[in-house]
């Protein structure tokens, strides 16, 4: 049941609009802060209800605050995403057509890669197959920097991955467009790009790195939850939530 | 929802446009530690409480929407919009170009128009208008009614006042924003923040350094009576180690930011002084600053800074407190 929106909700929404994405800790702090500012009741476990109220009002505008997990840290994030399909938003693109095409190609590369990463070399090479105006090397690099800056991609040692925000926003689209290709985590059932894969050829289930950490925590001998084969990959440590990281 | 393609990726990249006090203090403090002596307005912004009315530049940009739409068209030539929307009639096409052909429909016309539409249709159109405003406002350039009608409202123009009314209500109730017509002649709108900024908000929001710079300039202009020759601005900024002649680490081309970006965003007006050789300009507050920035608060801050009563600047005090909302068009008072 959704209540009416109050100033505390509006303040939360405005902050989300400015930040784009916040981690769980920041969201809780913000929630508390907004409620206190406007002298509203604030129960710590009611954050999701609070956000539901906002979402119910955002729904006609095809906007939503959605929750998602970082593939890197396993932390939960809240992102404000847009699900509209009208021409209106089409008219406001910050990126040119060819830039968008390259971004799309990057996503395809990441989709197809087992490790969920695309190297800058591969991205540069994919310029050759562009149908819109081809971009020079410097333009491509500039675009990639911009995409990282705008929190769509993450870059590490020359390899690009989709940012948490990108994944949260794109999930429905990816599931639909890449139905056959998309990897889904066996544990949390969300889409997975960077993940570990069961080496049993008849099994092949995927699990996010943080999900692996949580699932296999404390087990002496890790075994695949689906086929019971030995899980050969390195089990990462469970990461403590950090409030500093932003994606 | 039907085939989404890339329009799913509607980047909600809202860029923060907060004139936040904590921001000026960050960079100014650094400068002022070294340049404390001089300048007219010791812009030593200490722990000033955020006191300006902020504008969150919130918008949605349809980044890959365009690709998606072209893709979709290639896949199927039918439009996938959920509601039955008429295609804009070609007869109307020519008329849509000019706002001068758009006349505000009368109440009875609106009434009649509403009768022909379902509530869902009106709601959908309102939602599109809201999105359009949010998107366009991201660039901080006022939204013209002509563009709104041409690109969004289209054949719902006969109920335009109703749509605007609903959009205003949505901005108010959902976002805590106010839709303001800043130019009644050309019918341009901006979005301003209704809510008072609060200390601690900047903990989570990254603040935009440019707003600190803007704030400094607005303060100078206001304290000097509303109109200031550009040289004063440049020399003051230089004292703050922000040299318009050099590329600044944070702001880049300072001159461009101040005379182009801030002017386009309607925060400042940069007007040529006639009969000057070489050409000189003067600065005054822009329409957006008038609406968004509280003069009373600038004065209050100045008072804290100089440890004086704000009322000691009687002229500025009068101007700051002349209207309840302290946001009037800033016509230049005496220099």
Automatic annotation (TrEMBL), chain A:
Any one GO molecular function term: zinc ion binding
GO CC terms in record: chromosome, telomeric region; nucleus; Smc5-Smc6 complex
Domain RING-type: 185-228
Biological-process GO terms, alphabetical: double-strand break repair via homologous recombination
Enzyme Commission number(s) of this protein: 2.3.2.27
InterPro entries, per the entry: Nse1, Nse1_RING_C4HC3-type, WH-like_DNA-bd_sf, Znf_RING, Znf_RING/FYVE/PHD
Cellular localisation: Chromosome, Telomere; Nucleus
Predominant localisation class: nucleus
Coiled-coil features, chain-numbered ranges: none
Annotated transmembrane regions: none
Annotated catalysed reactions: S-ubiquitinyl-[E2 ubiquitin-conjugating enzyme]-L-cysteine + [acceptor protein]-L-lysine = [E2 ubiquitin-conjugating enzyme]-L-cysteine + N(6)-ubiquitinyl-[acceptor protein]-L-lysine
PROSITE patterns in UniProt: ZF_RING_2
Keyword annotations from UniProtKB, A to Z: Chromosome, DNA damage, DNA recombination, DNA repair, Metal-binding, Nucleus, Telomere, Transferase, Ubl conjugation pathway, Zinc, Zinc-finger
Superkingdom: Eukaryota
Protein family: Belongs to the NSE1 family.
Assembly and interaction partners: Component of the Smc5-Smc6 complex.
Purpose: RING-type zinc finger-containing E3 ubiquitin ligase that assembles with melanoma antigen protein (MAGE) to catalyze the direct transfer of ubiquitin from E2 ubiquitin-conjugating enzyme to a specific substrate. Involved in maintenance of genome integrity, DNA damage response and DNA repair.
Record protein name field: Non-structural maintenance of chromosomes element 1 homolog
Species whose genome carries this gene: Monopterus albus
Lineage: Eukaryota, Metazoa, Chordata, Craniata, Vertebrata
